[in-house]
Amino acid sequence: MAENAPHTTATEAHGGAAEHGSAFPPFDSTHFSSQLIWLALVFGALYLLMSRVALPRVAGILKDRGDKISGDLSAARDAQAKAEAAGADLEKTLAEAKAKAQAMGQQAHQALAAETEAKRKTLEGELNAKLAAAETQIADTKAKAMSNVETIAKDTASAIVEHITGKPADPQKIAAALANAKA
Asked: Which pLDDT tens digit goes with each residue over 54-81?
């Protein structure tokens, strides 16, 4: 009997020899009508479940996502328009500031030019006054020197004549000779 026990286990493991002759149950034509009914019932239940529960949720999620994307795109367009407007305002402000800075620079340049011109005129006036005073002083010094030249010329001529001739010179002849030399 020990030999028969393992043999029966092997037959049971393979499913038995009697069942090899029958068809696969889903393809058995005797069960076909009940399978079609169950197929229709399960399909209908799944259809109702999907159409009433799952699909409305998916449609709601898709609609919400579409609305959110549309809102985000609209907000992005608004932000872009605001940024462009702010950029235009910035460019306008920069242009105004640049023009104002140039005007201030020109005003400062003109003020410095006017101040420099006034200082130059003042300095020229002072220098012209000093030059006129110096010319007057030179003319006075020259006149004094020229008046002394005649005296020096008389003294020198008298000393030369006296030295050459050994006799004192006649002052009237020397004055006449100097008068002829000037003319």
From this structure: 899 999 999 999 999 999 999 999 999 9
The Cα 156–Cα 148 span in angstroms is 12
- The answer to whether 157 and 169 have CB atoms below 8 angstroms apart is yes
pTM for this predicted structure: 0.39
List of residues 6+ apart from 150 with CB closer than 8 A: 178
Measure the CA–CA gap between 126 and 120, rounded to whole angstroms. 10
- Residues 5-15 as b or e (16 or more Cβ within 10 Å = b): eeeeeeeeeee
Query: Distances in Å between the alpha carbon of 31 and those of 27, 131, 153?
Result: 8, 140, 169
Residue 167: closest CA among 175, 176, 159: 159
